[in-house]
Amino acid sequence: MTRWWSRLRPDNFTLALLCTVLLASFLPMHGAAAMVLDDVTDVAIAALFFLHGARLPRESIVAGLLHWRLHLTILACTFVMFPLLGLMFKPLDGWLLTPELYIGVLFLCALPSTVQSSIAFTSIARGNVPAAVCSASLSSILGVFLTPLLLALLAGTEGGMHNPGQAIVSIMLQLLVPFVAGHLLRPWIARWVEKQRALLRYTDQGTILLVVYSAFGEAVSEGLWSKTPLLSLLSVAVVAAVLLGIAMPLIRFIARRLGFNREDEITILFCGSKKSLATGVPIAKVLFAGGSLGAIVLPIMIYHQIQLIVCAMIAQRYARDPVTPR
To answer: Domain containing 204 — which CATH number?
Structure first.
């Protein structure tokens, strides 16, 4: 019983997310204070991606790029398979899911892969870590361009999204430019960044919490909880679980059919099935500024916790059985 509870118990960051949502629900900011918070959030997001760029070793990029079949497979799972799966839930739009939550599901499906947790789970499961570093980082960079375009294709004008071209420019200025600047400065700041890795992890999480508080505070002020039925909130959790439950076996099947070895299969499974909360929330802030941002980011927040629990269990299973036969 204790073992199962330790697996299912939310991690500290998820608990912090829940507390942040509660705080935003009861004490949202208004007026000038909300505008100041919005500006502070923009600066924090830029700093976050600057540090991401500074952490990415160039050697990993060069080594990983040589394994192009693996990267194309992961990118296809992330940006082709997932959006198609998202369309599968269209019949729930306006029935079990509110329109805003369904847009959130489509947004979740259009997001890039995570970086830190994809690498961590690949390492635990004894997969191809250098390839995971390269693939997850490449996914995040391409997400700046592909996520707005995919969402425009999937949702059209229904999502209340800004013009995709303008959105891409805005996302590049806020996310990609700081990322590239951080990477270019890596020769001078890499040592300091590595020494501060533990502290910077909390900086990452703090930035996400700040954005979530701002997004949910605005959404609550616009009537998020009063306009969203309880059945819809429960349904979006089920949708997130079903989405992951379909995606992971399908990705593993694809990896095996394409003849990848065990280490590459692990990398494809974890990098291809993960969706980035750290990248998703800032992108949503740009795409849906002034819209129902709180409801739209809710599916990725739920999916985030489910993927951590499930991937932790699968990674431990791979680690215990490193010579699983095909």
So the answer is: 1.20.1530.20
